[in-house]
Every structure is written in structure tokens, then in C-alpha cells.
Amino acid sequence: MSSKPRYAVFGNPVQHSKSPQIHQEFAKQENVAIDYDRIYAEIGGFAEAAAAFFAEGGQGANVTVPFKLDAFNFVDEHSERALAAGAVNTIILLGNGKFRGDNSDGVGMVNDIIQARGVPVAGKRILLIGAGGAVRGVIPVLQGHQSAEIVITNRTHAKAEEVAGRFGIRAIAMNELPENHFDIIINGTSGGLNGELPEIAPAVFGACALAYDMVYGKDSEPFLKFAAESGARQTADGLGMLVGQAAFSYQLWRGFEPDIKPVFEYMKDL
Ligand code: ATR
């Protein structure tokens, strides 16, 4: 067995994951050698796969779709962020052998928006589209940044209302959204994976300084193209969020804070 510290990302599917490359770049920055694998788990088989990984010397894990709730149930204790989001994307093996669950998605996204995109969150009116795990994961972190307003909208309005109630934010139906109002509009739906767009009127983007999609690459294109055509001044896909969440996970495991920017540039050109 390798003596290098061992990490992995669990998912289904997982072959497409860029996390191994990103974490290897962070390890170079820290000047250490690590193993970072992709581990495919069967639906319903996450706990078994994770237990086997840690029994074989794993020290930390990332968890992606669709296992963030399974990971939440797997760990012994939760960070406040993970509790608020109801989802775990980072598992940390503690010195006492217990597992701690955290969530680095929100930190990754908000750091990307503020630092890399140069768009402050404080004082801004933010619209979140979608009401699944992706959106729930970022709400508590956005709430910690003194935004002026956070509104959630979703194809199934009842789900938006449920999430809004849980976090004390406002839900507005997609066809009732105010025009020329939101500064930052974030798409957290999975519709782009099928080339589909949320049904939002173009004028909703009238005052939009940044339209952001949590997914990256071609899956983000339909939404970002529509946003730009509707007046959004800047658009960004979720590659910065991906690198940002990875960096925060790495820091949680190793206490080393990676420099995100060169890794983002490297991944962008890959
Ligand atoms: P995740 O955990 O990745 O967020 P999820 O819990 O399945 O995934 O949530 C997917 C989100 O994308 C939901 O908000 C879903 O809307 P519904 O609640 O109405 O299902 C949204 N979504 C998926 N496809 C969509 C589409 N074509 N148009 C608009 N919203 C869509």
C-alpha cells in the first residue's frame, strides 16, 4: 500500500470528475505527494464504499452527486455549514477515528464570485434558481455575507417555498419575478445538463451584474448565453466554484490553504 496520504472523490458517475487533477495541483503547491482517486459507488452503496476506503487508510473524501445526503448520514458529526445545508461534500477523518462532515460548496462559490469575478456580495440583491441540494448548499454561506436580499425561485414553486421557509429567505414564482431588480443571478438547476433553460423572463436580467451557473463547461452554456443576451453584464460558469470548493476541502484536511488562481487558469486551459 502507498504511504502517501490518501484522498478520493465518491460519485455516480465519477469518471468525468476533475477533482483529482485539481487536488494534485494543490499538493504541488504544498510540496507533498498525495494519492487522490475517483471512486464509483453503487446507488445505495455509499456507506459501504466509504467505510472500505477509510478502513484501507483513506484520510479524507469529497462526495459528489448523488451522495451528499448519504455522506451527511455517514459522518459522526457535522460542521454548522453542513448542518445548515443538509448536505456533506467533504469528509474529514478525525484523530479519534470519528468522521466529521463539512460542506465546501458555498465557500467555493462565494469566494469565486467575490475574489475571482470581482463582484461583491454585500449589499446585493441575489436570485437563486433551483431548490435542490446545490442551491441549499450555498444559501448559508451567502447569508453570512450581508447580502441585501436573497430570493429563491424554482420550477416547482412549493419546493422553493419549503427551502425559503427553512432559511428565512423569500420565494417568488418564476413568472412573478421582478424585472431589473437582481444584481446577481445564480442558476443551481440541473436543467442545463439537458440543454434546458429555467423559464425566466429576459427583463429579470435587466440589472444583473453577474449571471453565474453552478455547473461548468457546455452544460452552463444555454443559461449563460440567455443571461448575456438578456443584459447580464458578466457571466461565469462553475469552474471557479469547483476549484474553490476543492481548495477549501484541501484546507480542511491538511491545514494548507491553496492558491486558487493558478489552478483555475490551469484547469481552464486543459
Ligand atoms: P441537486 O441536488 O443537484 O440540486 P436536485 O435536488 O435534483 O439536484 O435538484 C434539481 C433542481 O433543478 C430542482 O430545483 C429542479 O426543479 P424542480 O424542483 O421543479 O424539479 C431543477 N430543474 C431540473 N431540470 C429543470 C428544468 N428543465 N427547468 C427548470 N428547473 C429544472
UniProtKB/TrEMBL annotation:
Name of the protein: Shikimate dehydrogenase (NADP(+))
Sequence positions that bind NADP(+): E80, G130, A131, G132, G133, A134, N154, R155, T156, H157, A158, K159, M214, G238
Active site, UniProt feature: K68
Domain of life: Bacteria
Keyword Amino-acid biosynthesis: yes
Gene Ontology cellular component list: cytosol
Lineage: Bacteria, Pseudomonadati, Pseudomonadota, Betaproteobacteria, Neisseriales
InterPro entries reported for this sequence: Aminoacid_DH-like_N_sf, NAD(P)-bd_dom_sf, SDH_C, Shikimate_DH, Shikimate_DH-bd_N, Shikimate_DH_fam, Shikm_DH/Glu-tRNA_Rdtase
Span of domain SDH C-terminal: 238-263
Domain Shikimate dehydrogenase substrate binding N-terminal intervals: 9-91
Family: Belongs to the shikimate dehydrogenase family.
Catalyzed chemical reaction(s): shikimate + NADP(+) = 3-dehydroshikimate + NADPH + H(+)
SUBUNIT field: Homodimer.
Top EC group: oxidoreductase
Gene3D superfamilies, per the entry: Leucine Dehydrogenase, chain A, domain 1 (3.40.50.10860), NAD(P)-binding Rossmann-like Domain (3.40.50.720)
Gene Ontology biological process terms in this record: amino acid biosynthetic process; aromatic amino acid family biosynthetic process; chorismate biosynthetic process; shikimate metabolic process
Record: residues binding shikimate: S17, K18, S19, T64, N89, D105, Y216, Q245
Domain Quinate/shikimate 5-dehydrogenase/glutamyl-tRNA reductase: 121-190
Function: Involved in the biosynthesis of the chorismate, which leads to the biosynthesis of aromatic amino acids. Catalyzes the reversible NADPH linked reduction of 3-dehydroshikimate (DHSA) to yield shikimate (SA).
HAMAP family: Shikimate_DH_AroE
Entries under CDD domains matching the protein: NAD_bind_Shikimate_DH (cd01065)
GO function terms (MF aspect): NADP binding; shikimate 3-dehydrogenase (NADP+) activity
